[in-house]
Prior knowledge:
By secondary structure, the protein is mostly beta strands. It has two domains: 109 residues, Immunoglobulin-like (Sandwich), CATH 2.60.40.2550; 142 residues, no CATH class. It is built from four helices and 16 strands. The strands form four sheets. Strands 2, 4, 5, 7, 8 and 9 form a six-stranded mixed beta sheet that branches. A four-stranded antiparallel beta sheet has the order 11-10-12-13. It has a three-stranded antiparallel beta sheet with strand order 1-3-6. The radius of gyration is 28 Å and the shape is elongated.
Amino acid sequence: MFKVKLTVNKSEPYAIGPDGVINIGPKDSAIIDYTIESPEADMYQVALYKTGGGLPSQRIPVTGGMNRRVYSGRFKFYAQDLGSGSTTSYRIWANDANGVYLGDGGLKFTIYVNSDMQYFTNRRLFTPDSVTGEEPCYLSLSDGQLYSYTTGGPHSATIDLGLFTKRDTTKVEVKDGVTTYTLANRNYLYSLSASPLPFAHYDISSWVKRGTLFSKQVTGGSITDIVKSLVPVLKLKRRQKSKPSTSLWCRQIWLLLIVCPWLPDNIFILKHLRESMALY
């Protein structure tokens, strides 16, 4: 009893291997390509059970004329059915003619569906230090890592943007023949592919340029409002098509150079190649 043997064949990239674990994207699929053997009793049914479930998710009859001691098959799973960010586990076991459990080979299969959105907190960019180059002024949105000029080179292929500070004239007043200018430091984001670079104190000519593009700023609000407006990613893509700003620095829908001054509680939509990201 319970001498059932279960083996898997990693017949394609998204087939689950012997370790029983796989990570897939929200638009991908996974398969279990398996062979189940019952050396001491005939199998009349192979069943797929979802961990935590009651009844089998699928039942495969092993009918007359088939080898009831060895059976091979495939189960396929779609990420959109499992759910973005989900973790789902399954077992495959055999039953005899009376529906009695014969065994599952001791294997469990777990499918992790990666979320279509990653959320990073407490990532702080600083004004570049033109003396030592040690302040983190570059950000990778794929993994949330911050880099300085001294650490960014080897990781430049993952860097999505840089930050620099510029002293702007925010107000001009003329009174009694005297002109008064009000100046303020403003933070700007830029793509490392911009030409010319708006911040030229660092030589990044040997770095890989990711080619990030920016949209106009979108008024944010609370973090709850942001999550509601940006999930799912489809809504993010709709915002990419929003009308361009009339600001001096934001006349294009997608900017390679400088975006508007970074204002509190606002969102930038960024993209490169086929990926879309949001920065709050």
